[in-house]
Amino acid sequence: MTTAFFAPPEAFRGDRVLFSAEEAHHAVRVLRASVGEVVVVVDGAGGWHRVRLDQIDRQQVAGTVLERRSDVGEPAYHLTIGLALLKNPGRFETFLEKAVELGVHTVMPLLTARTEKTRFRPERYDHLLVAAMKQCGRSRTLCLTEPQPLKSVLQAASDLSLICHEQADPAQALPAVLSRHPDARQLRVLVGPEGGFSDEEVRQAVAAGYLSVSLGPRRLRAETAALAAAAAVMLAKG
Ligand code: SAH
Hints:
six-stranded mixed β-sheet; single chain; 13 strands
């Protein structure tokens, strides 16, 4: 699989697609693409296109769509991960890149009782999310929401809602819980900050219908826990 190009839906007009300056630069200077070459262009909204490059010059790079498909590389389930904002923004960034590869649909940064104050600007991550999508063969960009208080997140419903908690009953290990809910298509998994969720937060989540789940006997860093959960869902749901 070769790395795809990105062009947002508005870059397509009928069968024509016009590359942005950045993608044009990548095609011409980095990949030395030539007229007549056929490449894959994803639009970040599930659109996947086979495109023949038919104009490459100083002004622009453009092509003709030969084939359209949708949701290539996208999982059949819909996983939302709520990960508490982390003290170290670099760790959150690492998590986001890997979350794209693991097929996560939405990431909700959570504000919890023990979340430390940090600045968070989702638009800072646009470039990273698009690059990860192109690299791994997805056709949808991961949806990254604004930070949200845990309380409001607990109100939304899904087929299976889970909160990762080190003190969860070992019988409630994530893989076992997933195998008991084979039909769940909309899943949510919450992971706490460095200091963990408070007992009160876990109680509130359970009262809201969340199952408290274990990721095993070791205490994982928050971003490791979130990635382990995403990988477990990916492997269980195929
Ligand atoms: N409360 C801990 C550390 C929290 S680890 C302390 O300060 O000692 C950060 C988050 O990762 C937790 O809130 C939990 O959601 C998740 N997590 C880490 N290890 C886990 C495990 N073994 N099982 C379930 N969740 C885990």
